[in-house]
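Write out the 3D structure for:
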Amino acid sequence: MSKPLRMSRRRWVVAAWAVLCVAGFAATAALDAFPAPGAHSEEPVSVECAEYIRNVEKQLAEAEREGNDDGVVAFTRVRVGADDCSDEVVDHFRDGR
């Protein structure tokens, strides 16, 4: 008599795991489908900041071509009245572009 009960319990455990896996996949798909409320969307940057980012990308590509790609980057900005592009630069390079 205990053998059918054990098989039944095993089936319940397998069914519970299957339901949990499906629920996990569904939750992951739902979270991936919608951006987080605090996430930054692709906002347009000023022309000056876009030019600055292009210049930085050009310098990084040149350093990589020359074999000087050691992962260290230093930025300086000394022009008076220039846009503060620090947030735009961080947002652009955060994803490893």
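The mean pLDDT is 78.
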